[in-house]
């Protein structure tokens, strides 16, 4: 027995053995949907909270390289 929705993104249930009633299939879909919704709600990534200080601070400049001469002139 196969149940598929009208659209391509619908739910597809394939019963391998037995003949479940419509009520049993409805109960199965309700339980799986609830479990999926609960798992999806827990899987949300937390947004990074940035303070006003971190938003306004500039990146520090990297130190000057003293091994390189100015304008590539040696001496």
Automatic annotation (TrEMBL):
Protein name: Acyl-CoA carboxylase subunit epsilon
Organism encoding this protein: Microbacterium insulae
Pfam entry (one): ACC_epsilon
């Amino acid at each position: 027995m196969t149940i598929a929705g009208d659209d391509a993104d619908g739910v597809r249930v394939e019963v391998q053995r037995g003949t479940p009633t419509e009520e049993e299939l409805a109960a199965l879909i309700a339980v799986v949907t609830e479990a999926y919704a609960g798992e999806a709600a827990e899987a949300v990534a937390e947004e990074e909270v940035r303070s006003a200080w971190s938003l306004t601070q500039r990146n520090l400049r990297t130190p000057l390289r003293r091994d390189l001469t100015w304008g590539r002139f040696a001496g």
